[in-house]
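Worked Example 4.2. Consider the chain below.
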Amino acid sequence: MKDQDRQTRPKKIFTTSWAAFYLYYVAIAICWFGPQLNPEFAARILLTPTLGMLLGLVLLGAVLFLKFGQHFEMDAEGVRRIQRYPARQDLLRWHEISSISVRSGLTQTILRVGNIVIQPHRGEEMVWYGLESPKLVKTLLERGLNEFTAR
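Applying the procedure from the previous section yields the following structure tokens:
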């Protein structure tokens, strides 16, 4: 492939999957419905229905922040993790990457989500959290690594 074709190739953008927040959803449900379903236990831990609703809303806000607060990109230059709040961008160029792997637990595997770990030759690893079909994403990243480092 010509260098010009490599430079004009569009970037791929990956976002965190909604399924990656399954534990947050359980916690929200416990906060919202727990005080109504088991008021005696809720009273022992000082969880009123109002406080449960507020805690659930805070957790829902955390889910929205994590879902829409970052995304991940792959282009001819390398891979990026872009955070919106606070504004920050981490870049690993293709020649700096030594390995790419998938990390996922049992529940994540069942839900078909996982984390992509990009290990540079030197420095701290970059982790892309909660991606849907992580094995496919890893294959795309490895293809990019092979394509852009083979010159």
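The mean pLDDT is 90. The first strand starts at residue 12 and ends at 14. Compare this with Example 4.1 before moving on.
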